[in-house]
Amino acid sequence: MKKIKLCAQIGLLIGTSFILACGGGSDTANSSNPNTPVVVNPPPDVSISQQAASKFLIQASFGPTTADIETLSDLGYEAWLNQQFALPITKHLSYVDSLVDIGGREYVAAWLATSTKADDQVRQRVAFALSELWVVSRHGLDFSNNEEAARGLTNYYDILLEHSFGNYRELMTAVTLSPIMGDYLSMRGNQKADSSRNIRPDENYAREMLQLFTIGLHELNLDGTQKLDGSGKAIPTYTQDDIEAIARVFTGWHYASYNIPDTDRDKFNPMKAFEDRHDRGQKEFFSGSIIPAEQSAEQDLEQILDIVFNHPNVGPFVGKQLIQRLVTSNPSNAYVERVASVFNNNGSGVRGDMKSIVKAILLDDEALTGITSSDKIFGKIKEPLIRMVGIWRAFNASASNGEFDYKYFTESLGQGPHLAHHVFNFFSPSYSPRGTFQDNNWVAPEFQIHTEANQTGMTNVFQWLVINRNNKNKTNPDENDILINLDNETNLAADLDALLDHYDMLLFAGEMSSELRTISKAYAETINADQPDRRAWEILGLLVVSPEFMIQD
Amino acid sequence: MNKFNRRDFLKLGAASIIGSGVANFPNLSFAQSAFSDYKALVCVFLHGGNDGFNLIVPTDANSYSEYANSRQNLAVESNLLLPISPLSNDGHTYGLHPSAAPLQSLFDDGKMAIVRNTGHLIEPVTRAQILDNSANLPTELFSHNNQQNQWKTINTNPLSTSGWGGRLANLFATQQSEPLLTGISVDDRSLWLSHPDTQDLSISANGFNDYWYVDQNDNGSENKRRTAYLENLYRAHNKEFNKGIAGVQQRTLELVESIGSTLSASTPISTVFPEGSRIASRLKQVANMIGSREALGMHRQVFFVEMGGFDTHDTQNRDQAELFNMLSTSLKAFYDALTEIGVAGDVTTFTASEFGRTLTSNGDGTDHGWGSNHLVIGDAVRGGDMYGAMPSLAIEGADDSGRRGRIIPTTSVEQYVHSMLQWYGLDSTQINTVLPNAGAFNINAVNLML
To answer: Which numeric CATH code is attached to B39-208+270-440?
Structure first.
């Protein structure tokens, strides 16, 4: 009954053809029902198993919930993605503006609450991946005015959300002109040379935009591998002279309110061009690209972004890193090539179409089957922040005051919302731990923030989220305690196998090892059966600190 | 020491331990050390590229005028510079940035040396070679992460997976009571300490927390939770990602439970470190570890700490005052703490940074440069003096690599650290292992250790 109702609702949303798909049945056991009406030319059954749905949600969202597993299982991958694409954007700024002052941490609370609760999960997850490419951070921004800075930083994230399903070229303009990025990489205030005072344009944005956000350091093949010159060496994408030329291109921009008394630090609206500060000379770079003299700052900016956007590196460079953030640390060359090809052309002649790129990443056979080329290893370490939000999602966390005012990041998670230490993100996409990974030329980027320095804190915090924060010693929780809800799990605890099945589906995509299951069950059996709530949280406490919960593969 | 409670593991059976990450912590029992003395090197990495040419400034009329002409609105006013008097006379006089008063006293007391214009090189190069494209230059010059990696590896192979601190630690690790404690970074893991054969360690600046939920001292149901936790952690994991995570979890648990109580039982350091500073708390943690060296049975250690914020593209004059103040007070507190512990002559501290900064300004800040001035501190240092050649600070002058005052280093990293490694006890073969490209330079050029 529930399934039919759900399908009907979705049918209203996205068209009648999907009602037929639902009616065709998602469970093979139902397909032989003699009462099923005969449908002429029935559409193919696109429904997927709950296990496949859970696995997909680990890649595409901040973590599976029972409801999302059911919906995705019924709809199948593509219809569910299309439904996600159509959802309105859940912006973080509206959450910030709903909060009473919590001391400049509003941007953190907004990120946690929205990532946990928002319906547009794929957009939220893709924006997070983009935020780890186009990095800005609270560290490195002026927080002397908490409210202004928190709103600005949140608005920056909303820009990423707005363009997550748009076009990469438009994202490039929007971020480049963001006053927060302008502050962070000092394009804001960048001015033409004044040789009498030895002032030259600021190279910061020109360099990092090329190195980190678009093309990288070395020329790439479509499959993400480096092109090599005749002597087997990597080929640099740009020279120091190129950086100095492009730094001149990015001159003239400042806060939109620059020079307006009392409001001259607009950290919200796109930066504006101030032509008297712009270098109007000709710029030459990339061995033959020319930006002609006498153009405006805006013309220069659009032209350089067009040139960079059309550089053949962008598809493989950006595509591979998005794959790494969502699906697997070591994609096969063929997988990167397939995604980069879609970046270059979505099939309708459009370059940089983010919806097509997201689909290409998530619907690729390699992502869905976990089968990769023989020289690679499939899977990745889940980011600690995503694991935490994942627990909150799976068990419907909330605080009685409605806020997600959580602040214990550095010691325990190695990362936090908007809290990278520098523009190189929390970890490097090429980080490879010593041992097997280095020996095989595999990377494990997230491993860089799993250090001996934070493993105790990480273990404590994940158990605390489940055990202490949920029940233990918490008969009267504070209004800002973020509590998970284990009512359903407590009800299931009379049947430990059923409870473990349930946890398995929500946290491990149905692939919990038999060893972990056996150990968990044996431990639960040491707890008196008349304490089903304790059984529920004690098992969960073991599961969330297990190595296999820290991995997706 | 070694209070690690192994009963839990024994209950699980030896088989579940063999093949786990315990191999990374190989020597839980005391080994007889080959050393009776103690020596440590401490690398303080100034992340972002420190502007050493504003930390140490020439003050004689000609040189200051050249500096001020290049630096313009970012020049430190000459009357504000803190004068220092180097033992050797190179024809110039010098002063320190006004926010670096603690360094002035270290220098005056003969506890700190300054090494001029140091940076990463493949071989000595000249401006003329660079301009006619004949110079053999490091790859990806002026890129933060690449230059950090190259500074840390100083290997002509850019894909080197070992840092020179790791190569140094690897020479001594197996002769230590606790090999894992040989190369230690406070907070983030560092490529500088990485080595294929020796596990480096990262520890928190806040010390070692207890495992609240799987504590070995809890009783009753808590211990059953611990048993279950350990059983799952120490069973065989058959996937590489899981093995990696299980390895670092096992290593951390064993470390915390074996030496955590040793450290918390050690005599607290009474030297006051600056409040609210990451670099100060990291250095304090290094001092804590060194203070426990005897209880831990350690004789040779290598430490890495990092201080961020030096990428001063904007508001340099304001930010630099804060950075230099924090750096100076923290380095002085660390030196004082080592003196308190009684090891100021056994521990040598030196600064590092991926590059210096342009002498030209971008309005209110600087861009990525190359050579920079550096500091070496300790009682074993031939302090109160300056080493390495003073470069021309003129834009497009003899030492400018281009047009913006990115100064070509006149001292390589190898030359900078060579005498420190000799002091540490390395013979020439070992030095060649740590500094494989030493032969490209006059390796005895900087001799700053007593």
So the answer is: 3.40.720
